[in-house]
Structures are given as C-alpha cells and as structure tokens.
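Worked Example 4.2. Consider the chain below.
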Amino acid sequence: MGQQVDAKREHGKKAMPGPGCISILLAAGCRQRLPPKNVYYYRCPDHRKNYVMSFAFCFDREDDIYQFAYCYPYTYTRLQHYLDNLQRRNMDYFCRELLGLSVQQRRLDLLTITNPVPPTSKGKK
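Applying the procedure from the previous section yields the following structure tokens:
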C-alpha cells in the first residue's frame, strides 16, 4: 500500500514538444489524468541521451487493477490535414465519406481502408 512507482519509457532521439496525456484507468471504471507535476520528460545519459518520460504514482489499494495509457497530443487540425492529403492521393484502398458535422461544425468522417484487390476464392477458375 502507498507504494510509489517510477515507470520509464524511452522515446528515440527525436525531441517531443513535451509529455502527452497519461491517464489511469482503475478497475472500478474511474479514469483520471496524472497531474503534470508527477510527469517528467528529459534527456537521459543512461539511455544514450535519448528522451525519457517517467511518472510517479502511488498505488493506494492493493486489490485494485490499475491500467496506464499514454496519448501523444494530436490536434483535430493536424488530423484533417493528414486525411486531406490521403484523399488527394486517390488511393484505391482509401475512402473518406462525410457522415455529418459535430456541434462545433467539425467533420465526422467515415474512413474505409480495404484491400484494393478482391480476394480470389480457392477452387474457382
């Protein structure tokens, strides 16, 4: 009980603008974010000066199951630019359809990614 854990993750040589969002999901379905003061992002000499993200967390109940998730910040605008670029390439296996707009008037897309070549059934000639 009250055990503190320092989990580390190596992030290659590229610098990230900063840590993303780390969420905790408890067994009871409760989800919360780690406070930024408990998340550390730095170059580590022990890891050939690669960037390392670590965080501190206290497990307060032994019988609970804790799950940690990391999400790098990805903006809606960046996603739209990426999807626009894919759409302009006219790839056979990529289809983007507008389903509607959100309350904020943002696109709600249906993306379909398939094999461009239909599967051949065995035994048919």
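The mean pLDDT is 77. The radius of gyration is 22 Å. Compare this with Example 4.1 before moving on.
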